[in-house]
TrEMBL record:
A single GO molecular function term of this UniProt record: S-adenosylmethionine-dependent methyltransferase activity
Entry keyword annotation includes Ubl conjugation: no
SUPFAM superfamilies per record: S-adenosyl-L-methionine-dependent methyltransferases (SSF53335)
Organism annotation: Paenibacillus riograndensis
Methyltransferase small domain span: 28-195
Keyword Transferase: yes
Domain of life from the UniProt record: Bacteria
GO terms, biological process: methylation
The entry's keywords: Methyltransferase, Transferase
Protein name per Swiss-Prot or TrEMBL: 16S rRNA methyltransferase
Length: 198
């Protein structure tokens, strides 16, 4: 497979499908497609992150690697007086996230194509959430952590979900070196939810 969801312009044939689900007690409907992460259903890691993440109302939130939008759109419902920015390198995912935000009535969102955090240069956030693109490699994942630290307000939090077998220990060590204040807030079937506070 020469391409995967971290490709900027996936050229695989479209295969749109609808996912109906409940996240944080809210019934939501997502359209997904071939060439994006977890096209068949919302992946388990994203689900456990959505259930665990704390988004104070009024927060400026950033979802890094948003895919077709389940984490960011859930954050938008948790913080109706806040604003959520969803970014992804994958142009197809970005279009889907825009469509899904509209169709689910999440009006307090902005969706942008972005290589890591380049599109939000100079912006600051209260909460950053990410199910990082493990397939892109450790260097990219660690770059996301570094740039997330720079884009957080003082006292802001970064929420990360990562599988133990896909590098949770090294991710935790990297976050520890950047933030100092790092807590593992949950373990679910090999997935770790890590919260880091600036």
């Amino acid at each position: 497979m020469s391409q995967h969801y971290y490709s900027q312009q996936p050229d695989v044939r479209h295969d749109r499908r609808t996912i109906e689900t409940v996240l944080r007690g809210k019934s939501l409907r997502f359209t997904s497609d071939a060439g994006v992460f977890s096209k068949g259903d919302i992946d388990y890691g994203s689900r456990v992150l959505i259930e665990a993440m704390e988004i104070p109302d009024g927060s400026a939130v950033l979802d890094v690697g948003c895919g077709y939008g389940p984490i960011g759109i859930s954050a938008a419902y948790l913080a109706p007086k806040g604003h959520v920015t969803l970014i992804d390198i994958n142009s197809r995912a970005v279009e889907l996230a825009r469509e899904n935000a509209r169709n689910n009535g999440a009006h307090n969102v902005t969706v942008m194509e972005s290589d890591v955090l380049s599109a939000v240069k100079g912006q600051k956030f209260d909460v950053i959430v990410t199910n990082p693109p493990i397939r892109a490699g450790k260097a990219v994942v660690h770059q996301i952590f570094e740039e997330a630290y720079d884009h957080l307000n003082e006292g802001g939090t970064l929420w990360v979900v990562i599988q133990k077998k896909q590098g949770a220990p090294s991710a935790a060590a990297k976050l520890e070196s950047l933030f100092g204040d790092v807590e593992e807030v949950g373990k679910y079937k090999g997935y770790r939810i890590i919260k880091a506070r600036k």
